[in-house]
Design brief:
heterodimer, A: about 160 residues, Four Helix Bundle (Hemerythrin (Met), subunit A), about 70% helix, B: about 110 residues, about 80% helix, NADH-quinone oxidoreductase subunit J (chain A), quinone binding (chain A), membrane (chain A)
Chain lengths: ~160, ~110
């Protein structure tokens, strides 16, 4: 039980470091650590398939993409122009207002029962695969078309057009 | 395995909701206070992840695998979004030599 609170504290700490660090490369690395703590959360919930997918897709693919673009654009220095302090202050206030609203609406609920695994093998690959390929077959195929479209779009956008330049 | 499963028993669902709200609010704050487009996209990823974790917690709590399948779809969507978004950032950088969000106000009339 206390493992959850420790990992949650680590997640919040590294998420705060992500948005407050000046250097963009450090920011990406802190985000990688945040996603790793999320993987630990998935393991604690016994969602093994999601833990592995989170580890591979988020920490492996997406973060490498972010780092690659940062290095490609040569932004690994503190070149970011800072917003004025007033805008920063207002942004922080707005974020805290959102948090207070969410937490306040949470208080209306009575104290909930604790999370319990009613069905311990719900997050295993076999079970999720059965659901994915029976109930969610059409969305699964459509998401493959979405990924193909995204790939074509990304290549088309990022390609240097020799005729124009 | 059993000890891991035993570990999570006893954390109230409210604490999961509160934790994910905090992470989501951190993501919103990051979008509001930074000017680097790449860090803004990273904050959006943070928000997506908090919602993913909350969906998983609800799915485990209710014993319904549909929530985890939805998290899988959200991850596929996030991968597509990051690929297209970073391609747009590369193109914008090629035209303006900057990733400052304030350089993108040309659409303002």
């Amino acid at each position: 039980m206390s493992v959850f609170y420790f990992v949650a504290f680590l997640s919040i700490f590294f998420a705060l470091m992500t948005i407050f660090t000046r250097n963009p490369v450090h920011s990406v690395l802190y985000l990688v650590i945040t996603f790793f703590t999320f993987t630990v959360h998935y393991i604690l919930l016994n969602a093994q398939f999601l833990a592995v997918v989170n580890f591979i897709v988020y920490m492996g693919a997406i973060m490498v993409l972010f780092l690659f673009v940062l290095m490609l654009l040569n932004l690994n220095k503190d070149s970011e122009p800072l917003k004025s302090n007033l805008v920063k202050f207002m942004g922080a206030i707005a974020g805290m207002c959102l948090l207070i609203t969410l937490a306040g609406s949470l208080r209306i609920l009575e104290v909930s029962e604790s999370v319990q695994l009613k069905n311990p093998d719900i997050g295993l690959v076999a079970n999720l695969g059965k659901v994915l390929f029976s109930d969610f077959l059409l969305p699964f195929e459509i998401s493959s078309i979405l990924l193909l479209t995204a790939m074509v779009g990304a290549v088309l956008l990022a390609k240097n057009d020799p005729k124009k330049v | 395995m059993e000890s891991i499963v035993q570990n999570i028993q006893g954390v109230p669902l409210n604490h999961y909701i509160l934790f994910c709200s905090i992470i989501f609010a951190i993501g919103v704050t990051g979008v509001l206070i930074r000017r680097n487009v790449i860090i803004i996209m990273m904050s959006v990823e943070l928000m997506l992840n908090s919602v993913n974790l909350l969906l998983t917690a609800f799915s485990v709590h209710n014993g319904d695998p549909a929530g985890q399948v939805f998290v899988f779809f959200i991850m596929a969507l996030a991968a597509a979004e990051v690929a297209v978004g970073l391609a747009i950032i590369v193109m914008v950088y090629r035209n303006t030599r900057s990733v400052d969000i304030n350089a993108l106000n040309r659409l303002r009339g």
